[in-house]
Design brief:
With 600 residues, this protein is α+β, with helices and mostly antiparallel strands. Strand 12 and strand 13 form a beta hairpin. The longest helix is centred in the last third of the chain and has 33 residues. It starts with a strand and ends in a 6-residue tail after the last strand.
C-alpha cells in the first residue's frame, strides 16, 4: 500500500503487529553527513506499506507517529539492517540507541552470510538471497529510480523490499537452527549497533596536520629523487628505450617491474622482484640502493595514508568509513581503511602519519588493546597446561620460550612482567625475544622454517630449531592443530568457539587446512572482541555517558570523550574487555588516554 498523508499512515498502522516488523528505508544516498530519508516500508506478514516522506508536508508528524509505534517493537527485521538503523539514528537521534538495547535485531544479510560466506549476499539479482532461497526476482533500485522517488512504481519497489525481507527471514531462520548457528547469529546482530555508531561517529582528521605531513613527505620524496638522479647518473644516461629520455627516475622507482629490470640490467643483479627483502639483500652490495628503499618508504606513506584522503573528510572534519565482517569473522574497514595504520618503523625523518588522527577539539582518546590475545585463545582452545600456566602466573610467554629454547639461564621468576628485572631483561634480549615471538605466532599461523629464516636472515636449521622448541614447550597446541586439520578434511569447514564456520570447497587443500586452523583462533578472537564491544557500547549508553566507541583496529578499540570522563571509566572498560568471555587463562588489556593516535 502506498501512503502519502498522516491520515493514510495512521489508518494503516493501527492494525499492524508492531511487535515483529520488517523495515526498509529509502534515502537520497549513502553518505551519513548528507543523509535524508525519502520514505520507509514495513511488513508484518499480513500488512505492508511504503510511506512517502519526500516533499511531504506531513513528514514530521508521520515520523513522530512512526516512532511511537516503533517503541512497541520487540523484533526488528531488515536486510543490511545497519544502514536502516543509521537512517533512524539520523532521524531520531540518541534515543534510538536506548530503544535498540531493548529489542531483538534480525539481519537477513548476516543470516545468509553465516550460512555460507562464499555466496552473494545482496537481496536481489542473480545469485542473490531472494533468488537462491525463494526463487524470486525483484525490481532493482535503478529501475525504480527512473520512475522517480515519489512515483507509485517506486512505492511498489520499496514495499516489496520489506515483504521480501520478512519472507526471507522465515526461510533462513530454520536453516540457522539446523546448522546450530543461532549463537553466532545473535552475536552478529547484537554487534550491528556498534557498527552503526562507529560509521556514524567517524574519526576526526586534523586537516592542517595532514597537509603539513603531505608537504613534508613530498619534499623528502623529491629530495630523494634528486639524490637518485645523482648517484645513478651513469646508469640513467644510457638510453635504451626504458630509462633516461623515456622514463624518469621517478617512473623507474615507482614501478616494481622497472625497478627489477634496473637491478638486473643496470646493476648486474639477478633477481625476480624488487620487494623489501630483495632490496635489502641488494643494498648490502650496492649502498646506493638504500636511497631507493627510503624513497619506496616515503612513496608508500604518501600513497597509502595521505594521498586521496581529503575526499573522505566531511565538512565537520570527520572521516566515516564503512565496516563489514569478512570470512574469518573479523571486521574490515574501507572507504577509507582506517584499520591500516603505519607502524612506528614506518616513520621517515620523524614524520608520523598517524598523528593526523586526533580526538575532536577538547577531547581525548582512550585506547584499549588486548595483549597477546590470539595466543591466549589458542591456549584456551588447546587446553595447553604449560601455556595456560604461563599466562595465569603473569609470564612474558615470548621470553619464557626464548629462555628455554636458547638456554639463556635467566631465573623464571624474573620473566614475569611484574618482576623489577623484567624490563631490563626484555631490553637486553629484545632480538632473541623477537625471534621467539615470531615463532610463537608462526606456530599459530603455520609459517614454515624457510619463511621464518628469511625474516630472520638466518638458516632454515636455526628457524626449525626455534619452532621445535616452541612445540616442545606447548605440545597440546600441535595436537590440537592436527585434530582441527582432520576435522576440516572430514567436514569441509572450521569453527570458532561460538560456532562461526569457515567453509572450503572440496577437495580440501593444504592451504585450506592452514586457513581453517588460523580461523579457529582469529575467528574466536573476532567474536570475543565483538561481544566486548557490544558490552562497552551498552555501558556507555546505559550510563548516559557522552563518550563514544568510534574506532576498532584489530585487537584495539578507541573511545573518544572528555578526559575526566575517560579517566573515570578507564578501569571499567578494561574490566568489560577482560571478562566479556571468560577463558581458562587471564585476559590482559592495556589502556591509555592520549591526544592523538600517534601516542601509545
Amino acid at each position: 500500500m502506498w501512503l502519502r498523508t498522516l491520515q493514510e499512515w495512521q489508518t494503516w498502522a493501527v492494525d499492524v503487529n508492531w511487535a515483529r516488523i520488517a523495515c526498509d528505508t529509502e534515502t537520497n544516498g549513502l553518505d551519513w553527513y548528507t543523509l535524508d530519508i525519502w520514505g520507509a516500508s514495513f511488513a508484518d506478514g499480513h500488512n505492508s506499506c511504503y510511506v512517502n516522506l519526500l516533499d511531504n508536508p506531513d513528514k514530521d508528524a508521520i515520523l513522530e507517529d512512526m516512532w511511537q509505534r516503533l517503541l512497541s517493537t520487540k523484533t526488528l527485521i531488515g536486510h543490511n539492517l545497519a544502514f536502516d538503523l543509521k537512517v533512524l539514528l539520523k532521524v531520531y537521534g540518541e534515543k534510538v540507541n536506548q530503544w535498540i538495547m531493548g529489542i531483538d535485531l534480525v539481519d537477513t544479510y548476516c543470516a545468509d552470510y553465516l550460512l555460507d560466506e562464499r555466496t552473494k549476499h545482496s537481496l536481489k539479482g542473480p545469485g542473490g538471497c531472494l533468488d537462491r532461497h525463494l526463487g524470486r526476482n525483484a525490481m532493482e533500485f535503478k529501475e525504480a529510480d527512473k520512475a522517480g522517488p515519489k512515483s507509485k512504481i517506486f512505492a511498489e519497489y520499496a514495499e516489496a523490499d520489506a515483504v521480501n525481507t520478512l519472507d526471507l527471514w522465515n526461510v533462513l531462520r530454520p536453516k540457522l537452527i539446523a546448522e546450530d548457528l543461532g549463537r553466532v547469529f545473535s552475536l552478529e546482530c547484537k554487534f550491528i549497533p556498534v557498527l552503526v555508531e562507529m560509521e556514524s561517529e567517524g574519526v576526526y582528521c586534523d586537516k592542517e596536520q595532514m597537509v603539513h605531513i603531505g608537504n613534508e613527505l613530498n619534499a623528502r620524496k623529491y629530495e630523494l629523487l634528486g639524490k637518485l638522479d645523482l648517484v645513478f647518473q651513469d646508469e640513467l644516461r644510457k638510453a635504451d628505450g626504458f630509462l633516461f629520455g623515456v622514463d624518469s627516475s621517478e617512473d623507474i622507482f615507482n614501478s616494481p617491474a622497472k625497478t627489477t629490470r634496473f637491478l638486473n640490467d643496470k646493476l648486474g643483479f639477478r633477481v625476480d622482484n624488487a620487494d623489501v627483502e630483495t632490496m635489502e639483500a641488494c643494498a648490502n652490495h650496492d649502498g646506493r640502493l638504500k636511497i631507493v628503499m627510503e624513497y619506496h618508504k616515503v612513496s608508500k606513506l604518501l600513497s597509502t595514508y595521505i594521498d586521496g584522503l581529503d575526499r573522505y573528510i566531511a565538512p565537520d572534519s570527520r572521516v566515516r568509513p564503512s565496516y563489514k565482517t569478512i570470512s574469518s569473522g573479523r571486521v574490515s574497514c574501507s572507504a577509507p581503511n582506517l584499520q591500516n595504520q603505519p607502524k612506528e618503523t614506518d616513520e621517515v625523518a620523524g614524520i608520523d602519519a598517524r598523528s593526523i588522527w586526533k580526538p575532536s577539539p577538547g577531547k581525548k582518546f582512550l585506547r584499549a588493546d588486548y595483549s597477546q590475545f590470539q595466543l591466549r585463545i589458542a591456549a584456551h582452545n588447546a587446553n595447553d597446561a604449560n601455556m595456560l600456566k604461563a599466562f595465569s602466573e603473569g609470564y612474558d610467554v615470548h621470553m619464557l620460550v626464548a629462555n628455554k629454547g636458547k638456554n639463556l639461564g635467566i631465573m623464571e621468576a624474573d620473566l614475569k612482567e611484574t618482576s623489577p628485572k623484567f624490563k631490563e631483561i626484555k631490553k637486553t634480549y629484545e632480538a632473541v625475544r623477537t625471534k621467539f615471538k615470531a615463532a610463537n605466532f608462526g606456530l599459530l599461523f603455520e609459517r614454515s622454517a624457510n619463511n621464518l629464516a628469511k625474516d630472520w636472515k638466518s638458516t632454515k636449521e636455526e628457524a626449525q630449531a626455534v619452532i621445535d622448541s616452541v612445540f616442545a614447550m606447548f605440545p597440546c597446541l600441535k595436537v590440537h592443530k592436527n585434530k582441527w586439520h582432520e576435522f576440516i578434511r572430514n567436514k569441509g569447514y572450521s569453527m570458532t568457539m561460538f560456532g562461526r564456520r569457515r567453509r572450503f570447497h572440496r577437495p580440501v587443500t593444504e592451504s585450506d587446512l592452514r586457513a581453517g586452523w588460523v580461523s579457529t583462533i582469529q575467528g574466536s578472537e573476532a567474536d570475543i572482541i565483538k561481544i566486548a564491544m557490544r558490552q562497552v557500547w551498552e555501558y556507555l549508553h546505559k550510563n548516559n555517558l557522552s563518550s563514544r566507541l568510534i574506532w576498532q583496529i584489530h585487537d584495539e578499540i578507541i573511545i573518544e570523550g572528555e578526559e575526566e570522563e575517560l579517566k573515570a571509566i578507564k578501569s571499567d572498560i578494561e574490566h568489560i574487555m577482560c571478562y566479556a568471555v571468560p577463558l581458562r587463562c587471564p585476559v590482559s588489556v592495556d589502556s591509555n588516554i592520549v591526544s592523538s593516535y600517534s601516542e601509545k
